[in-house]
Design goal:
Arc Repressor Mutant, subunit A, 72% helix, 12 helices
Length: 235
Amino acid sequence: MSTLRMTSDLRRQLILGAAKRCFARHGFAGTTTKSVAAAAAISEALLFKHFPSKAALFAEILAEECEADPALADLLGRKPSTTTLVELVRSMVQHFVRISDGPDKEDEQRLRLMVTSHLDDGEFARLVYAKVEKLIGAAFVASLERAIAAGDASRVETEPLNLFWFAHHTVLSAALMRLPATPCLAYGNANDLERQLCEFLLRGIGLNQAAIASHLDRQLKPASAQSTIAESAKA
């Protein structure tokens, strides 16, 4: 009787499926590579051939979830342009600002894990940053170049990818300020925070005021409308 060897890709997907179940049930801290291997019905040694650590497993799951997000896939599929650039920044700001307000606490737990990683060996954070760069970095840079060519932005420096990371780190830090039950900083009028952050970042990456006013106003709904949407999501 012949046996068909499982392909590496299929084995990888089975491991990821088992890891998702384990992480969902026990959280990151409560999950071990041994328990994931048992759930996947393989040895821990075989698991390590595909994923060198628990952090690598979790980072890969996060990357898959991002790639499967239809809104992000639609955005990354658009032609590079000033509009796409503004939408990328707006989406990033919206995601981070709303982490502490959303009913789903998974994003909050992931943010805490990122902070812990920075204070520990940094492995998980490095993996996540590498995947974010691969997924979004090129689209950001290409759209920034188109904005400069269209006269909507000025070139700020010779490393445009750094501008993406400066924007990312800014909104990540803003999210951390709002993470505790009693925020470290209230940022004044929280209803205006998304717009303020978007304008700050867009100016920082080189967009001129005319382009910001034109493109951002198309995408940011009034604060009252945003509050209504947020309340509907919680209902």
